[in-house]
């Protein structure tokens, strides 16, 4: 029996009003989460198009992740290309502006789009797993530890769910990431995905697609943990201390502004914590036969931080847009968008009782 067989109930995805009764055969897990709305990001003002934690809900979250990651990463390919080149050849590409200047002089404007295909397909696959499985693991771990612990230790819940999702997301990303970096940083290797994939396989075998998987995990798992946990907690803080009215009184547009702001803040921290591993991945995919440790030694401590400013700009903007697209997708499809978590009534009563006894 599948690990998630009890987690994924039969989908009830006909449009309903928010006051409609819950179907009788929903699992207790889904009932408790929908009723309490304890974990996740926003409120539902109208009828939902599908049940929270149903198969269709998770599937739509995955589709939102495809759009969120595929579109945004492809849009910043020129900046990503320059960033990668600064990381692997800082002597030639001395700064962001110099990197653009040299690239335009050598390859023309068309050269700035190198690697767009593996970027689009790779990060679309990653987005499917990243966002879709994050929602799955968040519900699964909530059920595992219980509603009260899920609230008390929600930061750890976000960290665990996002790390679990990213583990699988990077397996989906790695082959395309290898092709992207080769195209962008190895002159004469290949200009297109159709050229890069056969050559990587011919020269390095299947290992060529996954040799950077471990450093990719080292880069992406901390990045994603920060991306989701920082975002979730920042949303809470913005509504608590910045927005001058209750979350439920905000329009969808106002909610999406909060989403974008929280996403950008999370993105800045994401870029910093994951940058050294990102530099190693770029260097590793550029050089055939090297290991992550070899690449790190060759780069040195200062070399590990090359290209950080453009990456902060890129990842900050990228993360903000990803959260905005993902949340806007949910709004457009009238998907369940639970509000920031609130303390369960059972926990409130326990704390009140403990206070009286004290």
TrEMBL record:
<feature type="repeat" description="Solcar">
    <location>
        <begin position="56"/>
        <end position="140"/>
    </location>
</feature>
<dbReference type="InterPro" id="IPR023395">
    <property type="entry name" value="MCP_dom_sf"/>
</dbReference>
<feature type="region of interest" description="Disordered">
    <location>
        <begin position="339"/>
        <end position="358"/>
    </location>
</feature>
<feature type="repeat" description="Solcar">
    <location>
        <begin position="154"/>
        <end position="237"/>
    </location>
</feature>
<keyword id="KW-0999">Mitochondrion inner membrane</keyword>
<protein>
    <recommendedName>
        <fullName>Phosphate carrier protein, mitochondrial</fullName>
    </recommendedName>
</protein>
<keyword id="KW-0472">Membrane</keyword>
<keyword id="KW-0813">Transport</keyword>
<keyword id="KW-0677">Repeat</keyword>
<dbReference type="InterPro" id="IPR018108">
    <property type="entry name" value="MCP_transmembrane"/>
</dbReference>
<keyword id="KW-0496">Mitochondrion</keyword>
<dbReference type="GO" id="GO:1990547">
    <property type="term" value="P:mitochondrial phosphate ion transmembrane transport"/>
</dbReference>
<comment type="function">
    <text>Transport of phosphate groups from the cytosol to the mitochondrial matrix.</text>
</comment>
<dbReference type="GO" id="GO:0005743">
    <property type="term" value="C:mitochondrial inner membrane"/>
</dbReference>
<feature type="compositionally biased region" description="Basic and acidic residues">
    <location>
        <begin position="345"/>
        <end position="358"/>
    </location>
</feature>
<dbReference type="Pfam" id="PF00153">
    <property type="entry name" value="Mito_carr"/>
</dbReference>
<keyword id="KW-1133">Transmembrane helix</keyword>
<keyword id="KW-0809">Transit peptide</keyword>
<dbReference type="GO" id="GO:0005315">
    <property type="term" value="F:phosphate transmembrane transporter activity"/>
</dbReference>
<keyword id="KW-0812">Transmembrane</keyword>
<feature type="repeat" description="Solcar">
    <location>
        <begin position="254"/>
        <end position="332"/>
    </location>
</feature>
<comment type="similarity">
    <text>Belongs to the mitochondrial carrier (TC 2.A.29) family.</text>
</comment>
<dbReference type="InterPro" id="IPR044677">
    <property type="entry name" value="SLC25A3/Pic2/Mir1-like"/>
</dbReference>
């Amino acid at each position: 029996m599948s690990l998630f067989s009890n987690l994924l109930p039969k989908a009830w995805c006909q449009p309903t009003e928010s006051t409609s009764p819950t179907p009788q055969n929903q699992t207790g897990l889904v009932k408790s989460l929908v009723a309490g709305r304890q974990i996740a990001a926003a409120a539902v003002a109208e009828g939902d198009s599908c049940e929270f934690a149903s198969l269709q809900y998770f599937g739509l979250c995955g589709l939102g992740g495809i759009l969120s990651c595929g579109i945004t990463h492809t849009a910043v390919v020129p900046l990503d290309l320059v960033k990668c080149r600064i990381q692997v050849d800082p002597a030639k590409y001395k700064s962001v502006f110099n990197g653009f200047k040299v690239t335009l002089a050598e390859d023309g404007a068309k050269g700035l789009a190198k690697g767009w295909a593996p970027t689009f397909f790779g990060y679309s696959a990653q987005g499917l797993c990243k966002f879709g499985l994050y929602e799955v693991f968040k519900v699964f771990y909530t059920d595992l530890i219980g509603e009260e612990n899920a609230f008390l230790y929600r930061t750890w819940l976000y960290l665990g769910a996002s790390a679990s999702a990213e583990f699988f997301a990077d397996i989906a990303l790695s082959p395309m990431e290898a092709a992207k970096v080769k195209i962008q940083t190895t002159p004469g290797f290949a200009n297109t995905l159709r050229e890069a994939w056969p050559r990587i396989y011919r020269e390095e075998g299947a290992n060529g697609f996954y040799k950077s998987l471990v450093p990719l995990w080292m880069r992406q798992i901390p990045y994603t943990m920060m991306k989701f946990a920082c975002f979730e907690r920042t949303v809470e803080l913005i509504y608590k201390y910045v927005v001058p009215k209750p979350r439920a009184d905000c329009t969808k547009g106002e909610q999406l502004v909060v989403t974008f702001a929280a996403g950008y803040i999370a993105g800045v921290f994401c870029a910093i914590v994951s940058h050294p591993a990102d530099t190693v991945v770029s260097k590793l995919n550029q050089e055939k036969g090297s290991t992550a440790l070899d690449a790190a030694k060759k780069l040195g401590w200062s070399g590990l931080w090359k290209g950080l400013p453009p990456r902060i700009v890129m990842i900050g903007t990228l993360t903000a847009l990803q959260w905005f697209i993902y949340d806007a997708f949910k709004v457009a499809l009238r998907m369940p968008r639970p509000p920031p978590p609130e303390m369960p009534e059972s926990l409130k009563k326990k704390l009140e009782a403990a206070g009286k006894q004290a």
